[in-house]
């Protein structure tokens, strides 16, 4: 039975091979007209430039942390695993984004020449490369490291490596994409009155690059972190639960999940008569069913019973339901978004208020679902069950990320179609694909938050075990724990404030640059002068990289500071407090943002006066407020809560040796 | 030494006598012209009508809860104390609001005939009646009940009575005032283009009534609850700490605080050459100094040392510093508000984003201050010290409420001056008084949140003691505690969503009514037709009362449900989670709202284009979003976290006997 551990690296490699196959498949497709190729090259280059610049900063950050780990806890194996985790996350992100920036133009070309089905297939294949790279590198890395060392502590280093990259990818990507988006919209659409994705807008390329660095690379790194984190916590707690089998079981489940995701990918088939949304859902659900059945069998093999499988199934179902409920709160087909659209009739203030109210209200059901998941998983398999639920939820990450990354590719395809002046039928197809992408993006965000919550919780329990608080507990009546909880609860608010401010500052610079180009480049608005795309790309790149440092450093230093000064119990309080407020804020901000976005689209579809009406203007304000909510601050909080927990876990030996200065 | 307990009821009565004296003093002043008297009568009647209608609903609610307590825990003495607490809070609120609606017109008259000093004195005297009524009834009630029963459990019933009234006063008052305000502004100012407080606006009386029911009666009930709650928790923990002396000490400190507040009131003297702000600060600081010195002496007498006094001083200083820091984040004299004003230049979206960022950022320093306060208080006197810090912070409630209630009186005075067409010099004086009121209101809100946090925390510890978790602790690794924490952390978000929605709905009705009157009453906009004020007052009243029920019932039922179904430990988690997210949300929403308000005023003072500019229009959107933030949802959260904790404390015997069904 213990031999089954080799499933993990083997299926990891299978996933990577499948990613390689898909990459080649996408690459073989026609890339369209010269104009399309030219625009795609701009986007591709912009994205690469950002990643390269980001990596340069990351090398310094990673080197510092490497030494901190080695010196701080005296275990250089952990430090090396940290490097490997950082490297794997980086490579996965690079591969995924590289393909995404090739799939976009090919999706547009397929929409032009072959219709919806082919276009859907290419966009989804592009996304699936990211998905397979995430699970491939994650599973391979975790499997090999555990097989070699049999030491879960060392594995936490791998997880921290993944988290560090995720932080910068999500925060930097989030700032990048919204600075470009807000800048392009406020000057281009509002001031100059040119449509979205118009090639005359100098920020338009940066905007399209942003979709890739934020929604593809950032999201991928986020889920890579969750994926690895859930495995690490399940392995840590598995050793306590059932020694070797308890540690290997989650790895085998993850391997099963990879298989299920690959199978699910083959279920995503376009059908001219039905919506692409259905095809994507179909793929996800079939993967989930495969995992459910397989986990029952594996649970019988490993533990001679079904209790552990039930914990996994609880996690899986909660994850799917959170996706569904997110759709209810953020899709124009349901009452909440319609209410916001109606409130737009009385102006921007009521639009903003009702959007905030919807977002806040939307925290309730996901939290109750998570609570039921925790109760269910615990009842069947104790604290190990909570970690297994996280593994279950994340087992189908391969296809989840594929569906998620499909969105920005379709979005980009639309942009390229518009910029290359393709006929409106093509744009119609890409618009349909993009609309589905908006829904899946909101669902993906809900899933990312839910899985981050469960992962962070499982890691939190692992942390308690690592600092020896498993028996004595973390007592909420201990004043240090209370202080930790207050400070921890405050951090997501401060972090969100920082990231929102960063978007404001970066967008401001972008606005100035676009205005400058409109003024100084002759004939630019008549389509005769050539806009300088690269200067806008450079502004977004530099601003994102500069602004991501403060929140990033805060996320690493805050737990270290509290752990060293007030001790491990206070740090436990901090992690608990951050987890609770972080999850609420993330759900609130993501869903408010998604709901505003779709309220605007609902009005643009001809309701409440349609485009150009007062209500539409108000809804644009809501959408602009929602941009940093849903694409920068909200998703970044996922990383914050996971990263702080994993930092605490890795540095546990340090806190134990110092034990609180105060 | 135990005899000193009689200080409590005696000084309680002194406070009430002082309130009576001030009431007479205010009543003796000239009420101005016939037109002024007529308008004042409208406001007075509107406020009374609201309170009467509210009390009718409250009687039902109180009766149900009375039976629930008696039957649920089988202690009818506690149930009777609950009735007394509810009655005292009601009477205090009624007295305070009654005087406030007399002081407003007399302040305007004094500004007309005698100048700033006299006007300040009357407005402050009016506010001081509310302050003295709060501490008088609170101290008298707590002192007498404890002297008679010597049973802290019974006393928690008194505290629950106070909390129940506070809930409805704060939530109902908050909905009332913002529905009227938003309704009056959106139709009157924006659509019809008539100035603020214009008598042609049918909602103008409701708007002025709202200031009284929300900012006087609601705020008073909020602090009455904190005041009583801090005493109850200190008495409960005092018995554990040092038997009888530990229980009596906080009562004597509160008595000292009443004395200090009365002394502080005499320090509030207008001076034509200096700002009224200074006079009010002077009064508050002198009261604080009296308590500091007195507590050192009393601590020596009671415990033969200074440790307990230091805990009190920690609380007092933290309370003052939170006020100061709130001013920094919300006053136009500092950079944060100026930044929001600057962002208004790029439209309402950036105004809203930067205001939210400022509010979120503003959580950091108060939380660190509270953390330092907890560490300091605990280090010197253990958990009892935390309760003492809350008592210390609230010891000067008499003058704090006086300063707070001064604001809406000055605001009303300005409204009356405007509506009666008094000359602009008069309006200048009331504007100055009002501007000071805005600052003190923001500081008062910060203080109300800080004291609510500390009180809820102290009550939380008392709860743990009551359910026998003092020794075993409330373990953050217990899955039930985790579930409780998630659910608890979600409740403030849900509660805020409900209250914001309520404001939207109520405001919508108000908007429709004002529009109807403008359309159907001939000559109304030329000042010839008479607007129907009472229908607007009725709309606000009915909407507020209807809308306050759902959040109110939720606040009572949520802890009962979790306590009964998941048991006392899970309920402990719920209270912890709600406390953490509740405090953050309350600070965030109050300060965002305050900052937007003053950013608008800053622009109106001639910056960024002044009144009528694009920036001004954007800042009005921010201010409107901030209205329910700062005056409805934010302050209502204070009540939520305190009420849920006190419900848990009172029903502790029930949870113990059932112990969790699950």
Short description:
Chains A, B: The record marks 441 as: Determinant of potassium dependence. Chain A has helices at 7-28, 34-73, 76-113, 116-149, 152-192, 204-267, 276-303, 307-330, 335-343, 348-361, 364-395, 397-419, 424-466, 479-520, 533-547, 549-566, 568-604, 614-650, 652-658.
Radius of gyration of chain A: 23 Å
Oligomer: homodimer
Biggest interface: chains and residue counts? A-B, 77 and 77 residues
Low-confidence stretches of chain A: none
Number of helix segments of chain A? 19
Decide which structural class fits the backbone of chain A.
mainly alpha
- Backbone shape of chain A: globular
- Find the count of extended strands of chain A (DSSP E, 2+ residues): 0
**How far is the N terminus from the C terminus of chain A?**
48 Å
Mean pLDDT of chain A: 92
Sheet of most strands of chain A: none
Helix content of chain A: over 70%
**Strand content bin of chain A:** under 5%
User: How are helices and strands ordered from N to C of chain A?
Assistant: HHHHHHHHHHHHHHHHHHH
Enzyme class (chains A, B): translocase
Membrane topology (chains A, B): Multi-pass membrane protein
Subcellular location (chains A, B): Cell membrane; Endomembrane system
EC number (chains A, B): 7.2.3.1
């Amino acid at each position: 039975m213990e031999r089954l551990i080799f499933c993990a690296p083997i299926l990891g490699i299978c996933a990577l091979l499948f990613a390689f196959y898909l990459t080649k498949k996408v690459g073989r497709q026609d890339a369209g007209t010269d104009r399309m190729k030219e625009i795609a090259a701009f986007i591709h280059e912009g994205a690469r430039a950002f990643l390269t610049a980001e990596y340069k900063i990351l090398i310094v950050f990673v080197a510092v942390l490497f030494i901190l780990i080695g010196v701080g806890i005296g275990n250089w194996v952990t430090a090396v695993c940290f490097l490997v985790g950082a490297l794997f996350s980086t490579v996965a992100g690079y591969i995924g984004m590289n393909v995404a920036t090739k799939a976009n133009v090919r999706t547009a070309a397929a929409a032009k020449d072959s219709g919806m089905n082919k276009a859907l297939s290419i966009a989804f294949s592009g996304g699936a490369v990211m998905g397979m790279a995430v699970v491939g590198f994650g599973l391979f890395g975790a499997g090999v490291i555990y097989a070699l060392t049999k030491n879960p502590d060392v594995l936490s280093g791998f997880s921290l490596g993944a988290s560090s990259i995720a932080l910068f990818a999500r925060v930097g990507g989030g700032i990048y994409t919204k600075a470009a988006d807000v800048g392009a919209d406020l000057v281009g659409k509002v001031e100059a009155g040119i449509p979205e994705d118009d090639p005359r807008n100098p920020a338009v390329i940066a905007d399209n690059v942003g979709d890739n660095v934020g929604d593809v690379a950032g999201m991928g790194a986020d889920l890579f972190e969750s994926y690895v984190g859930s495995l690490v916590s399940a392995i840590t707690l598995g050793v306590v639960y059932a020694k070797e089998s308890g540690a290997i079981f989650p790895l085998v489940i993850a391997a099963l999940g990879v298989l299920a995701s690959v199978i699910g990918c083959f279920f995503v088939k376009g059908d001219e008569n039905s919506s692409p949304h259905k095809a994507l859902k179909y793929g996800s659900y079939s993967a989930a069913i495969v995992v459910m059945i397989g986990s029952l069998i594996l649970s019988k093999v490993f533990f001679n019973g079904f209790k552990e499988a039930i914990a996994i199934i609880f996690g899986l179902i909660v994850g799917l339901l959170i996706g569904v409920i997110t759709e209810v709160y953020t899709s124009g087909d349901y009452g909440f978004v319609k209410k916001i659209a109606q409130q737009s009739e009385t102006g921007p203030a009521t639009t903003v208020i009702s959007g905030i109210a919807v977002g806040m209200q939307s925290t309730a059901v996901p939290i109750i679902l998570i609570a039921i998941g925790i109760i269910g998983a615990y009842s069947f398999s104790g604290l190990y069950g909570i970690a297994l639920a996280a593994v279950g939820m994340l087992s189908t990450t391969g296809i989840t990320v594929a569906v998620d990354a499909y969105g920005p590719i379709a979005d980009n395809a639309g942009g390229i179609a518009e910029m290359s002046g393709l006929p409106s039928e093509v744009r119609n197809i890409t618009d349909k694909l993009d609309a589905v992408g908006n829904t899946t993006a909101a669902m993906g965000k809900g899933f990312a938050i839910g899985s981050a919550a469960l992962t962070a919780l499982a890691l939190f329990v692992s942390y308690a075990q690592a600092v020896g608080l498993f028996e004595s507990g973390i007592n909420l009546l201990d004043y240090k724990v209370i202080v930790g909880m207050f400070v921890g609860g405050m951090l997501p608010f401060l972090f969100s404030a920082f990231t929102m401010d960063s978007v404001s500052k970066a967008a401001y610079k972008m606005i100035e640059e676009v205005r400058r180009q409109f003024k100084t480049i002759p004939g630019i608005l008549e389509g005769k002068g050539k806009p300088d795309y690269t200067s806008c790309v450079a502004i977004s790149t530099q601003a994102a990289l500069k602004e991501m440092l403060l929140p990033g450093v805060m996320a690493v230093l805050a737990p270290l500071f509290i752990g060293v000064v007030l001790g491990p119990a206070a740090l436990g309080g901090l992690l608990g407090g951050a987890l609770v407020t972080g999850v609420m804020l993330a759900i609130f901000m993501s869903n408010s943002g998604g709901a505003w976005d779709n309220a605007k689209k609902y009005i643009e579809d001809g309701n409440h006066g349609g485009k150009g009406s007062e209500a539409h203007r108000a809804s644009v304000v809501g959408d602009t407020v929602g941009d940093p909510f849903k694409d920068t601050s909200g998703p970044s909080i996922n990383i914050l809560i996971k990263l702080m927990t994993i930092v605490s876990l890795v540095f546990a030996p340090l806190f134990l040796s110092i034990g609180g200065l105060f």
